[in-house]
Specification:
single chain; mainly alpha
Length: 174
């Protein structure tokens, strides 16, 4: 039942990603593609964590940037015609809070709400990896070396701690 629910939700959300504005439409398309890849990477990472459910991690990866959707839809509804850089800046500033609010209004479980709200926060505490940690690792893996380099240059040494939580000695050597 849970897997079917996740598939239906994924397909429904995927159909929502349309806009008449070509810049917004392209951003929604890339958002959906990125979310699917992060979902797949999250699933694989969670396979190494006995206390996490890979299907739930896949859903976490799928919805991690869901706040992008209301930001883009707001811009489209207001008739805004932002260039790609302006739209990206708006999304960066608002997507985590918008995702938290959206998932809360949809009565999602708190752990998935936390993923949408905290997946870019590498300063979180905790001994064991949770779904936020899994997505926090999967997200830049999809985005490639540029995002990982930004961690180093931005002084995000906590990112390594998050990675280590997901890949402990007991599961894989790093």
């Amino acid at each position: 039942y849970r897997l079917l629910h996740n598939i239906v939700l994924a397909l429904t959300v995927g159909e929502m990603f349309r806009s008449a504005n070509p810049v917004i439409n392209q951003r929604l398309k890339s958002f959906w593609e990125h979310s699917r890849r992060v979902a797949a990477i999250s699933y694989v990472i969670a396979l190494r964590q006995k206390h996490l459910q890979p299907e739930h991690a896949m859903m976490a990866g799928l919805i991690h940037d869901i706040g992008t959707l209301p930001v883009c839809l707001f811009a489209a509804k207001k008739g805004m015609s932002p260039d790609a850089e302006t739209l990206e800046s708006l999304i960066r500033k608002c997507h985590e809070q918008a995702g938290r609010r959206l998932l809360k209004s949809w009565n999602f479980p708190q752990d998935l709400i936390d993923v949408a709200a905290e997946h870019e926060d590498f300063h979180r505490d905790g001994e064991r990896a949770d779904y936020v940690d899994v997505v926090a690792v999967a997200n830049p893996l999809d985005m490639g070396a540029a995002k990982i380099t930004a961690w180093d240059n931005g002084g995000h040494s906590s990112a390594l701690v998050t990675v280590k939580k997901c890949f402990t000695k007991s599961t894989v050597d790093i």
